[in-house]
Every structure is written in C-alpha cells, then in structure tokens.
Design brief:
The complex is a heterotrimer. By secondary structure, chain A is mostly helical. Chain A is built from nine helices and two strands. By secondary structure, chain B is an alpha/beta fold. Classes of the chains: A mainly alpha, B alpha/beta, C alpha/beta.
C-alpha cells in the first residue's frame, strides 16, 4: 500500500547521512528522518487510542467488580483471567486474523484547515485493527487496577455515608468511587501507552499492521540490511526505545503530581 | 402515650465464612460469625438510647444494620410505622434517619470540598433549587460551629473536631428525625469531645432529634443518655434508664464495666478498680449458655449450660442474668472457678 | 525522701520543616523520683509524645533537641564519663555524653512502650523471638562490660543472615529465650511457653500490650516510658494493663512516665502529674495539687470538660477554641493559652513566669518537685477590669 508522503526515488538506494537525507534513506530511497517523524504519529495515535479503548472497557469492569464484590467480582475476574491466559502477541495476531486489516483514512488536520501546501497528502492511514486489537488485549490491566482501588474504596466510611443519605450505587460509583480511583488508573494509562506502542510495533514488524508507514514496518524492512544499511532498522528501534522511556517518565511524574499530598499529623 | 419512633425486634446479623463456591463443592460447613444475635430495643421520640459495649460486641454493626446500611440476616425494624427491611423504597427513610461516624476524616470524601459534602444529600434528594441548597449548606455549617468561609476547603485542611462537625452538618442536611451516632467522639481529644457533645446536646433540643448513641466510654454515656443498653458478644445483657444502670447495675458484666473505669480525682488508686480477667471474646466462637460465664466472677455451673432469659427487674429495667430470679436453678448449682 | 531519678531542665525540641520551625516542646522542666509514676497529661499536639521520644533519644530529622539538659542519676555511669560538664554528682546529663553511650542506655536505663501494640511488633517473627532479641542484646551488652559499643552485640546484617541460614548460629541464645518466656509469665500471659511460639496476629490487643511490656522489661530499666499504653484498649482490658503496670512498678522498682490524655488513668496511676499545653508544662504537682488546688485555667478547663462516670448531674464546660499553631513564626511571646483563657489579663501578653502555685515565688532552682505553674495568677489574682480584650483574635485563633 502506498502512503502518499514520499515518492520512491528510482535510483540511489541505501544512502547514509547526507544533507538531503540527514538520517539516510530506506531501501526504497525514502528519507529516514521523515519516516521516523511520520511513524511517530502512527505509533503515538495507536498507543493513545488503544489505551483509551482499553480504559473504557477495563475501568468500568474493574470498578464494578471491586465495588459490588462477591458474584459480580468472581464472574468478571474469571473472564479477565481467561483473557490473561493468552500471551498478548498471540492473541493480537489471532484477532487481526479475525478482523482483517482495516486501514482507516483519517483526514490530516493541517491539510483540512488549509495550513499547508496543496501538495501535501490530505489524509493518513490509521491502522484500525491494530488499535482495536491492542486495546482489547490489554484492558485487563486496567480492570485489575480499577478493581483493586474499588475494593479498598468500597470499604471507606464516606461510601457508607453516601449510602446513608440515599445515594444509589450508580451515583456512588460515578461520584465517589471513580474520582478516588482515578490516580493509579491514569498513571497506568501512561505506562500502557508505551506498552501498546511496543505491541503495535511488534504487530507491524510481523506484517499485521494496516499501514507501511510505521516504525515496526521499518524495523522489519531493515532486518535484511543490517550489515550494510544498519540505520534502517536501528533508527526506528531507537525511536521506539526513547518514546517508551519518555512515556514511562511522564507516568512517574504524573504519579507524584496527582498525589493529593494529604499530610499526616506530626502528633504530640 | 408515645409510640416509639424506632422499634427493633430480634435483629440478627451473621457473617458467613466458608461460603465460596469452592467451599460448597468441598461441602464445608458454613461458619457463622454472629456479630449481632437477637437484639431488641425501642427508642421514644426525643430520647437518647446509648448502646454500650467493648470491641466485638456488635454495637456498631447494630447501628448500621438498623439503618439497613448492612443487610440484616433476620429481624424487624419499625420506624414510625415503616418496616425498614421490607420496604421497597427507602428514600423517605433515608431523609429521616441519618448517621454520624466514628472516624471523622474517613467519613468525608477526600476529593470533595466541605461544601459539596454537606450539599450532597440535598442534591441526591433534589431539595429545592440550587440557591436554596447553597443557603442551607451555609446555614448548616454555621450551626455546627464552622465558618462559611471554609466552604471550599478540603477535609484534610481541618482538624478532627472540625471534620466531625462537617459530618454532623451533613447528617442534618435533610432535617432528619433520628440519628445514629456511632462513637462520634471516641477519636477526638478531650476538650474537643466536650465541644462536640455540647453541640449534639444543643442540636437535639433545637431540632427534637432522637439519638441512638453508640459508645464505649461510660462517662460520656452517663452525661448524654436517657436510657442505656449494654451489649456483650452480640446480645443485650442489660437495659435500663441511665441512672438505674449506674446506681443499680444488675448484670455482672455491667458491674465489671463500671468497676473498670478509672475514676478522675485525687483519691483512689488503681487498687480500687476491680479488674475483669480474660480477654474480650471474639464472636466467632461464643461460649455456651450465658456468654459471659467464662469471665463472670459469680458464674455457676448452671450458667454454662443454660441460656438466660430476659428478666424484668423494675420498670424499664431488664437483665439477662439468672441472679435476677431468686427461684432460679442458678442458686442450686456449683460456682465456677473463674480462671 | 525518695531519690530523684531524672531531672529534665529547660528541654526544647524543634522540628525544622518545610513550613517552618515547629516548637514542639518549648522549655519544660520536671523531675521524676525513683519508684514513682509521673503522669504527663495533655491533648494531641501538646508535646507529650515528643517529650517521651526526646528522653529515649528517638527524635529524628527534621526534629532536634535544641536546648536543655536531661540529668539521669546513675553513679556507675557518672564514674565512667570523663567530660566534667556532663556530670553533677551522681547525675549525668545524657545530652552531653557520646552517642554510643547514650544509645546503650536504651534497655537498661530507659525503655518505652507505645500505644498500638500491633504495629510495634514485626508480624513475621514470633513474639517469643522478638522478646528474646531484646534480652539477648542486653545480655551481650552487659557481658562485654564497659565497652559501650560492642561489636558482637550488634544485630546487624551478618547476624541476621547467619540467623536465618544456620540454625545453630541463632542470634538469640536458649538462655535468652528462657528469660523471654519468664518475662511473658511475669506480665501475666497464660501458657507462656506456647505463646512465645506464636505470631503477633495471634495475640489479642491486651495480650500483645503485655508482650510489649515484657519486651520493655528485658533490660530491667530504671524508667519505663508508657506512651498512651491503654488508649487503644477496651476499658476492661485497660484496667488489667494498668494493674499490671502498677504491680511491676513495685516489683521491679522502676519509675514510670505515663503519658495519656485520659484523666481517669492519670488519677489511678500517678503520684505526680504534669499538664502540657502547646509544648509547655503549664502546671505540675501531686494529684491533690492538681485536682483540688489547681491554679492554671487550662487545668481547670480540662477537668470541667471531662464527663465523670460517677456524677449524674455533671455539666460539661468545654474550653472554647483550639490549640494554637506551634509554628515559630506564629507563636508570639504571650502566654499560649491566653486566647482561650477565661482569666486572661493584659499581663498575659508577656511570657508568664514559672512560679510556685501557692506562694507565687519564681522557681529558679532546679528542684521542681513542688506544685508549680506557668501562670501569672498566683501573683496576680484575676481582675476583670484588666481582662484581655477581644484583640486577642491574633493569628492563633482557629478557624472556628
């Protein structure tokens, strides 16, 4: 499939760092730097959207399991356990096989708003299956964390207090359990973005992605050229590494920043 | 003659262990922890009934179960003609019956401002329009002794006593008739205790409130209660008007409780207090017969074999001890060695 | 005349926090005699626990003892110390001796028990072993004689690893374990041999508190510091523990510093009492002094705000307001209780002197075993015309 970003240059393949191509080119002569930059868009979008999907499935499941407990908890968690029994990559591949590769053309905002020149592509390809799949594979993590939080919150006295003034369970979940459980879920969210990026690049590497403009694809492509044009595989690999580390650091910071910082007494 | 506002009959709350799917497959017997095992009492309008006992006796569980904050195993609770456990819609009941908890901080959602916390009951029940609600919140905060300038502060910015005031304000939001006060001052400092007790007293007089006051501190009970029920291991062992209980305790456990309280004052020393031997028992494995017999200084063999019924000693004064009946078999049996 | 055991003079403990300097304890002086129970009463934030920890040298950053002396009567120790400033006859100022020597006092001289027994024990080690460790440490220390810093008595990483891996090299010797079982028996735990093999969670609150007392007794201390030892216990269990402490005090011939906010416990157990407020000792004396001849309005306020189990018609008179902030920048030079005091006068805007409660003479000599108060009232009876006006709404008033 063709991504309308760069034309293939018919001659000169595998050029390493020149002024025209600062990071070299891939085997088809396309500029690596550009591929890295555009690949970032794919990866980040997949990571964030996938996390959102995982959250929207996992958090309600987990909160309900933790809050209602007993039978509800048992049932929901058994389902989660079953999902966890599958290695995520295997499950992902199976789902891709099931759903098929869906490539969604998404209008590029700059182009739609007329901010860039006419020759730039009007849309980019979002690998829809990959997004869906990584989300479905990893929702269980959110469910686990949400359940843990809900379990401890459900025993708090302010929940009892809310019940005593007549709040319904839905109301309590919405207004008391969710806001108090959100911190570790958000932190997990940032870390999961990183995990999803890795998962999606793995899928792309194996050829299951819906787009060829991604880091995973480049790594796969560069596999055969490691001896001669090592940069084709290494540069995207480095990009993945740096992105994942950066996201984890953000997650760490977020954990500290969201801590309500309620001091204990110094006691007399 | 007033009808009681609240009437509790044979309330039971059991917690079952060994009832997961696995246990049922393995045919293990369900074990019941009988936290509340047949408790009955009533409270007249405007009255304060104190429920007194040590840890594990079931008083807090009783308070919460009466309000159906926990699912009862058995029993009936009548509140002004409404059967609480049978009713399908408890909205009206929730308006008229409230609760104040023991741990002031834990009972407040740490992510809500104090104003939002007090407003919440009004929002849930859709009382008036938002302006009315704001006015009422401000009124309540002032009434419990807080300044309205703090309406946007968070619970952790307040002291324990102030947090408890917020809890009280919330409980009063819907103009209830009845409040369960679950050890409302136990976690507070001495002088703050006094302030809160005084506040509760004032509020009761001003709003004609009825209180179920759960406590373990007998001095506080003597100050605030009209009638007292003493609980031990899930049962009420004595019930009397407050002065009768303190002047003429009929049950050995009540006597032991009173004797254990260290007296304030220059005279007297630790030798004056009679200590009760043994540990506070766990409701998991209650003793046979009279549950107090292992620790009772005057227990007889009969006490181990038979469960004592409720005896009437005086008007409104009842006890579950054989010693109240001069013709009981108790007097014929051998004393137990209390070790 | 009973000998004095401990003389605390002008003790000050400050915490240097991010919000500023907190004056947790602000220059207190008191004396504990040998074999007596000294009660320290006050509300949370008053500084009682901080005082206790200061005596045990358990104050950690950001806190520090910034001032004062803690004179401890121990003739043998006085002989060993070279520094002349640190000695006064048989008394040693433990603030001025070397750190290792001061640390070695924990156990044989000072021991402490805390409010919540469940969090004072390691849940993964049997109770008997934990008490045995205390015994063993003391045994090794005394076996090493004068060496205050004995390598072999240290329970360091090496000992711990050996202990876990090699059964015969257990840190706790059989003799120490036997003594641990004896101690459990002494504190009234039935079947001590079996109980020693159990873990803390298998003990009830009262039993565990007894075990903690047993551990504290391992070194045969001169002074037992009990920080709210019965606050977390049921009233019938509290009576048992207090009875035990009173017994032990006689048989072990030790003094007790009893910290609590419960006036009943103070009444039953103490010989002498000190009342703390906002880091200061506002009144101290015998039980009779405090309950029947109290002078300081805070003491009066406390007594009036506590319901009495024996009095059917008691009126509660709570003290208005709350304890002031202990931040140095917010504390003035005035009497810290002035904002809440029903008898505050203009003179209370200055730091009140420490005086004899009856005669009013200033207490300058170190002997503070009389009825003493930090107030102007003994010298200047309350005069409503000189009352402190409503400009006492200084920053110390709470938001209530």
């Amino acid at each position: 499939m063709e991504n309308g970003t760069l034309q293939a240059i018919s001659e000169s393949v595998e050029v390493s760092g020149t002024w025209k191509y600062p990071l070299g080119t891939d085997p088809l002569g396309r500029d690596m730097l550009s591929r890295l930059v555009y690949g970032a868009r794919t990866s980040l979008l997949v990571g964030i959207l996938g996390t959102l999907i995982a959250m929207s499935v996992g958090v309600p499941v987990g909160l309900s399991a933790g809050y209602f407990g007993k039978r509800v908890d048992d049932t929901l968690m058994r389902i989660a356990d079953i999902m966890l029994a599958f290695p995520s990559l295997v499950l992902a591949i199976a789902l891709v096989g099931l759903i098929g590769r869906v490539a969604i053309p998404v209008p590029a905002p700059w182009a739609t708003l007329g901010l860039v020149s006419e020759s730039m592509p009007k849309s980019f390809i979002l690998p829809g299956t990959v997004v869906l799949v990584v989300g479905l594979v990893r929702w269980v993590w959110f469910a686990r964390v949400a359940r843990g939080e809900a379990l401890s919150i459900a025993n708090e006295e302010y929940i009892k207090a809310a019940k005593s003034v007549g709040a319904s369970n839905m109301y309590i979940l919405r207004k008391h359990v969710f806001p108090n459980a959100i911190t570790p879920i958000l932190v997990l969210g940032t870390i999961q973005v990183a995990a999803m990026i890795i998962l999606s690049t793995s899928l792309a590497f194996l050829g299951f992605s819906g787009t060829t403009l991604s880091w995973g694809f480049d790594v796969a492509q560069g596999r055969d050229y490691l001896a001669s044009a090592w940069w084709v595989a290494t540069l995207p690999g480095l990009a993945i590494l740096l992105t994942v580390v950066a996201i984890n650091l953000i997650g760490d910071w977020l954990r500290d920043a969201l801590d309500p910082g309620i001091e204990g007494e110094t006691g007399g | 003659m007033n009808e009681p506002l609240l009437s509790v009959t044979d309330l039971r709350k059991y917690y079952y262990e060994n009832n997961s799917v696995l246990d049922m497959l393995l045919r293990r017997d369900q074990q019941a922890v009988k936290a509340v095992d047949g408790v009955s009492f009533s409270i007249d309008p405007g009255e304060t009934l104190a429920l007194v006992g040590e840890s594990g006796c079931g008083k807090s569980t009783t308070g919460e179960t009466v309000l159906k904050l926990r699912e009862p195993t058995n029993g009936e609770v009548m509140f002004d003609g409404l059967s609480v456990f049978d009713a399908s819609d408890l909205t009206e009941f929730r308006r008229r019956a409230g609760i104040v908890f023991q741990d002031p901080f834990a009972s407040l959602d740490p992510r809500m401002t104090v104003g939002e916390i007090v407003r919440e009951p009004l929002d849930i029940h859709d009382e008036g329009d938002p302006k009315d609600r704001d006015r009422r919140v401000k009124y309540l905060l002032e009434r419990v002794g807080l300044s309205t300038e703090q309406i946007d502060r968070y619970p952790h910015e307040f002291s324990g006593g102030q947090q408890q005031r917020v809890g009280i304000a919330r409980a009063l939001a819907l103009q209830p008739d009845f409040l369960v006060l679950d050890e409302p001052v136990s976690a507070l400092d001495v002088s703050v205790q006094a302030q809160i007790l005084e506040l509760l007293d004032d509020l009761q007089n001003e709003f004609s409130l009825t209180y179920l006051f759960i406590a373990h501190d007998l001095a506080v009970v003597r100050y605030i209660a009209d009638r007292v029920a003493v609980m031990y291991l899930g049962e009420i062992v004595e019930r009397a008007p407050v002065e009768d209980l303190f002047e003429n305790p009929a049950h050995p456990y009540t006597q032991a409780l009173l004797d254990s309280v260290p007296r304030v004052g220059a005279e007297g020393s630790i030798d004056d207090t009679e200590t009760l031997p043994g540990d506070v028992p766990s409701p998991r494995n209650p003793p046979s017969g009279c549950r107090f017999h292992p620790r009772c200084p005057v227990a007889h063999e009969y006490c181990r074999q038979t469960i004592p019924p409720t005896y009437d000693i005086d008007t409104n004064h009842q006890t579950n001890c054989f010693r109240a009946a001069p013709d009981s078999e108790y007097w014929n049996s051998e004393p137990l060695d209390p070790s | 005349m009973t000998r004095e055991l401990l003389r605390v003079r002008d003790l000050a403990v400050r915490f240097f926090t991010e919000d500023g300097q907190v004056n947790a304890v602000d220059g207190i002086s008191f004396t504990i005699k040998a074999g007596e129970v000294f009660g320290l009463v006050g509300e949370s934030g008053a500084g009682k626990s901080v005082t206790a920890r200061a005596l045990m040298d358990l104050i950690e950053t950001p806190g520090r003892i910034t001032d004062g002396a803690i004179w401890y009567r121990n003739p043998e120790l006085a002989d060993q110390i070279d520094t002349s400033r640190a000695i006064n006859g048989d008394f040693v100022d433990i603030r001025q001796i070397a750190d290792p020597i001061r640390r070695s006092l924990r156990g044989p001289s000072f021991a402490m028990i805390f409010q919540d027994p469940m969090s004072s024990f390691d849940p993964t080690v049997t109770v008997g072993k934990q008490i045995g460790e205390a015994v063993e440490v003391q045994r090794r220390a005394s076996a090493d004689g004068h060496r205050a810093f004995a390598h072999s008595r240290e329970y360091g990483l090496g000992s711990m690893l050996l202990d876990t891996i090699v059964p015969t090299r257990e840190f706790v010797s059989p003799a120490s374990m036997d003594r641990a079982v004896d101690l459990l028996e002494q504190v009234g735990i039935p079947d001590p041999g079996d109980r020693a093999e159990q873990y803390p969670h298998e003990f009830s609150g009262g039993m565990l508190q007894r075990a903690m007392i047993a551990q504290a007794l391992a070194g045969e201390p001169d002074l037992l510091i009990a920080d709210e030892p019965t606050t977390a216990l049921d009233v019938t269990i509290q009576a048992q523990i207090l009875e035990l402490l009173a017994e032990l005090q006689t048989t072990e011939e030790m003094s007790i510093l009893l910290i609590t906010h419960n006036l009943g416990v103070i009444s039953q157990m103490s010989d002498r009492v000190g009342v703390m407020y906002a880091g200061e000792l506002v009144e101290q004396g015998t039980l009779t002094d405090l309950f029947e001849h109290h002078v300081h309005p805070y003491t009066a306020g406390l007594l009036q705000s506590v319901p009495d189990v024996e009095d059917p018609s008691a009126e509660l008179n709570p003290i208005d307001g709350t304890m002031p902030s202990l931040l140095d920048t917010e504390m003035g030079d005035r009497c810290y209780f002035a904002d809440r005091c029903p008898k505050a006068m203009e003179t209370c805007l200055e730091d009140p002197p420490v005086v004899d409660a009856t005669s009013g003479e200033p207490m300058t000599e170190p002997n503070t075993t009389r009825h003493v108060t930090k107030c102007v009232l003994p010298n200047q009876p309350y005069d409503p015309t000189a009352a402190l006006s409503a400009d006492k709404s200084n920053n110390t008033e709470g938001s209530e």
